[in-house]
Backbone:
């Protein structure tokens, strides 16, 4: 190896280490966000459990054993366990403060529903189930839209573009289209690189800028190849000879 090749090799290793460090940091941020989201959902479920137990006691239903929340698995770090314990204590305090109000509201709810049913005519009674069905369907659609993975959103966006796009351009477009999702440039860059690794996107570097282009899914590519092969093997009529 010549002396001139050593600095170039060092620079290549430095770029690779920097890219891997950026990817590691991004993954840590994503996992922390997922942990925080799961802790919020757990706190909400525990609060709902306490309120439902209070409402059941107020309604005087059949006394049956109420399942207690399942003990969660031990987390990998002591910090996560401490955070979960603090969330449970806060939830228990809120549930105790709202228990009396929930019991009174549950006792008055049948009377209110009966009064509303009497005041409303037959048309209102018939329209109520339809309105509930429409609202339930809208919530289901919205919930399904929120669960779309970021990789799928990026692939859909790139598939609809006529020109290659940078990670920053993709992130800006997703922020405008999905304001309720937390999207950063680093997260989009890392996720798009996953698409490249899965052969769902193409990566082209022009100078210091990297551009991405969507590639079809494996099933779509196979279907396109079969269609092209079918067209190429079509037989043409042979002219009759005298």
Residues:
């Amino acid at each position: 190896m010549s002396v001139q090749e050593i600095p170039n090799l060092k620079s290549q290793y430095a770029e690779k280490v920097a890219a891997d460090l950026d990817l590691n940091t991004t993954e840590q941020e994503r996992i922390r966000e997922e942990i925080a989201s799961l802790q919020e959902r757990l706190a909400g479920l525990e609060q709902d459990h306490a309120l439902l137990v209070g409402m059941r006691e107020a309604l005087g239903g059949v006394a049956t054993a109420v399942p207690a929340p399942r003990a969660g698995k031990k987390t990998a770090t002591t910090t996560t366990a401490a955070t979960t314990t603090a969330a449970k204590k806060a939830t228990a305090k809120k549930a105790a403060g709202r228990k009396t109000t929930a019991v009174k509201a549950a006792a008055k709810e049948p009377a209110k529903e009966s009064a509303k049913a009497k005041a409303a005519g037959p048309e209102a009674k018939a329209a109520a189930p339809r309105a509930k069905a429409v609202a339930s369907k809208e919530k289901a659609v919205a919930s399904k839209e929120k669960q779309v993975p970021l990789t799928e959103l990026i692939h859909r966006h790139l598939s609809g573009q006529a020109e290659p796009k940078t990670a920053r351009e993709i992130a800006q477009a997703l922020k405008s289209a999905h304001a309720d999702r937390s999207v950063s440039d680093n997260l989009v860059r890392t996720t798009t690189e996953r698409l490249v690794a899965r052969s769902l996107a193409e990566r082209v570097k022009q100078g210091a800028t990297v551009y991405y282009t969507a590639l079809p899914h494996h099933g779509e590519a196979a279907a396109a190849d079969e269609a092209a092969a079918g067209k190429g093997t079509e037989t043409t009529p042979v002219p009759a000879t005298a």
Q: What stands out?
A: The two ends are 74 Å apart (CA to CA). DSSP finds seven helices and two strands in the chain. The beta strands are 201-206, 209-214.
